[in-house]
Specification:
With about 650 residues, the protein is mainly beta. It contains eight helices and 39 strands.
């Protein structure tokens, strides 16, 4: 760890100490205003999470830093998209190269397509197979109103989930259909083209139930960008309980996105045009409670993503840029949770997936480039003493194109008391190349069939990226003050980073423009600190404080000097959720980001801040529950965003939402 990294960590720790001191002083000054809950009351509400190790465990015993966001908080946030919800997680940033393609990821400037961030919806991975392995369009497959909770593991977790869980895991759990019996209608309308509609109907009981949700969202995206968006969604979930020991879930859905793309009408690299995407999926899951403490789970899912992205090249009659294609992924998995003794629990499993894509424009063939991956995984949790918990995990995958890889984890939790947990450990993760990085072959011809450019000619020699993460964590719960603290101090070393290199086209070496290939070009080191504080000083008030500090250094001094893909050195989010008289709910979320780049120095974004305000009034119309909410996003006004050199701006938006639940 270099001097600058050490300095960054020292500064981050000093901010953490100051933040804790502020919280502690404030608590002391106000704790007499209202009776504090008892320890029994408080610890009864400790979340049980599944994301870290696939074992259900209290949040403070998990082998990693986890943020839990429930459906109540999602509603209070005023978010219209899942990306906006992710701003509530330390270390996660919201971005997107235009307003039609919002995305959120951990260390987002290094991962601006979300390829290194695993997103699961009820256990189904949603990254795209057809193009860059991106996750942002898959995140549009779920409606916020259908989500029960989101568990976000901040940091590497390939030991539990394999090749795509390098920077984090977003695990989205939707509501059981028996909990949504009845109907719901939601309508939003506002400036910048905001027009949202959603309807839900559910029938059944705890033995058998089904829910159907349909909806559409519209808006005009960023200012000064050609990125109007129309998103349509339809999702069906059914749950059955054929016996006391069995639970079956079946789900299917489709989402359709129509979005603007391009920089100008005359831009030869990306002219104005409209992109169409369609994602379809189905999944099934069967759980059997084999005994009181042992469970068997079998799951299968299928996803197809289609992209239509065609544009005429300005100034070159007959020349067309075409990135259209379709991808398919089939995945099956078997998992068994077993209690070996009073002190040892384990989960073991195996699975197989088949991934393929078809696109003549992207691969210069009508065949289906593909790969298969088989896997085995396991986690063992050993409670050595009441105060010491050891968690080890191992994922072994065999990728048909890049070979066998392993991803181990070793984590130790020390719990000197029920209120405090200290965590230390090491995790190794990998990211396997996607089909584009292995097989991309993109050519542009004129109307006479003459090769104009050979944009990509992947040689297929690219190797998996590797990440070694060392972290120290702390989870503290202060029941008398109704306050919790979760902190993570980390050092991440990434090698074999996949980037683009150029070489003369093998089809025509005399072409002026060179051909691009995906290669393992460089590495980087990142150190940082992040923490989250949750405080309920009164029964009607909840305060959130998130802060993250990071220092990134590229191995290549040329890349480092360009400030390429550099996350903000510091980020802060403060949230206030206040229930006012008459059950009126006020939410204020304020975010501050240090200077950062999304691509390189040309798009350096200076320090920025954003405040969202939501005011909601619940009421009844007969037996119908209703809520009227007014939300303002970026209340301070418009601000530069993403492509600064093109004057892209995130606009101030306001909209009114009416929700009725029967």
């Amino acid at each position: 760890m270099g001097p600058l990294s050490v300095l960054c960590v020292r500064r981050a720790c000093r901010h953490l100490v100051l933040g804790l001191a502020w919280a502690g002083l404030t608590v002391v000054s106000t704790q007499a205003a209202e009776r504090a809950p008892t320890e029994e009351d408080y610890f009864a509400q400790v979340p049980v999470v599944l994301t870290a190790s696939r074992l259900d465990q209290p949040l403070n015993e998990a082998p990693g830093a986890i943020t839990v966001i429930d459906r109540h908080t999602i509603r209070l946030s005023g978010a219209r998209t899942l990306v906006e919800v992710m701003r509530l997680v330390p270390g996660y940033l919201a971005g997107g190269w235009n307003g039609a393609n919002p995305l959120a990821s951990y260390h987002i400037p290094i991962d601006d397509y979300g390829t290194r961030n695993l997103v699961l919806i009820d256990g189904r991975s949603v990254y795209a197979s057809s193009y860059l392995g991106d996750t942002h369009r898959g995140m549009m497959d779920v409606m916020l109103e259908d989500i029960e909770r989101i568990e976000v593991l901040r940091g590497a977790n390939s030991a539990a989930y394999g090749a795509n869980a390098m920077f984090g895991v977003i695990n989205i759990i939707t509501r059981h259909s028996a909990d949504t019996v009845g109907g719901e209608l939601t309508v939003s309308s506002g400036d910048h083209g905001i027009q949202d509609r959603r309807a839900r109907i559910g029938v059944g009981d705890e033995t058998a139930s089904v829910r159907l949700s349909v909806g559409e969202q519209r808006d005009t995206g960023y200012l000064n960008a050609y990125d109007d968006r129309r998103l349509g969604q339809a999702n069906l979930r059914a749950d059955f309980k054929p016996s006391l020991a069995d639970d079956v879930m079946v789900a299917m859905g489709v989402s359709y996105l129509e979005g603007g793309e391009g920089y100008s009408a005359t831009d030869q690299g990306n002219p104005f045009h409209t992109v169409h995407t369609r994602n379809t999926h189905w999944q099934a899951e069967w759980r059997r409670q084999v005994s009181e403490r042992n469970e068997l789970k079998v799951s299968a899912n299928y996803m197809e993503d289609r992209l239509v992205d065609v544009a005429d090249v300005p100034g070159l009659p007959g020349a067309v840029m075409d990135y259209s294609g379709k991808g398919r992924r089939t995945n099956v998995e078997l998992q068994y949770k077993v209690t070996l003794s009073d002190h040892v629990r384990a989960v073991i499993g195996t699975g197989h997936k088949d991934e393929k894509a078809q696109s003549f424009p992207l691969y210069a063939t009508h065949d289906w480039p593909a790969f298969q991956e088989s896997r085995v995984f396991g986690t063992v949790e050993w409670r050595a003493t009441p105060q010491w918990l050891v968690n080890t995990g191992l994922f072994v995958g065999h990728h048909s194109r890049v070979g066998t890889y392993t991803a181990p984890r070793f984590m130790v939790n020390w719990m000197p008391s029920a209120a405090h947990t200290f965590r230390v450990g090491v995790t190794e993760s990998i990211r396997a190349p996607n089909l584009s990085e292995l097989d991309a072959d993109v050519r542009i011809y004129d109307a006479q069939g003459t090769l104009l450019t050979h944009e990509f000619g992947a040689t297929g020699r690219v190797k998996p990226e590797e990440l070694r993460s060392t972290e120290i964590g702390y989870v503290g719960r202060f029941p008398n003050q109704s306050l919790t603290l979760d902190a993570r101090l980390y050092h991440e070393r990434m090698d074999e980073l996949i980037k683009v290199s150029t070489y003369p086209s093998p089809l025509n070496p005399s072409l002026k423009s060179k051909t691009r290939d995906y290669v393992n070009l460089t590495g980087l080191t990142m150190v940082g600190l992040e923490y989250q504080v949750r405080w309920k000083p009164f029964g009607t008030t909840e305060l959130w404080l998130n802060q993250s500090f990071s220092d990134l250094r590229w191995d290549d001094p040329v890349i480092d000097g360009r400030d390429e893909r550099r996350p903000p050195a510091h980020a802060t989010l403060i949230g206030l959720f206040q229930r006012l008289p008459g059950d009126v709910q006020l939410s204020v979320i304020h975010e501050r980001l240090g200077g950062m780049t999304f691509r390189d120095k040309r798009d350096w974004m200076p320090f920025s801040h954003r405040t969202d305000v939501r005011l909601a009034y619940p009421f009844r119309v007969g037996l119908t529950k209703a809520e009227l909410a007014f939300t303002v996003q970026s209340a301070e006004g418009d601000r530069p965003f993403f492509l600064v050199r093109r004057n892209f701006q995130l606009a101030r938006k306001s909209f009114l939402t009416l929700r009725m639940e029967m």
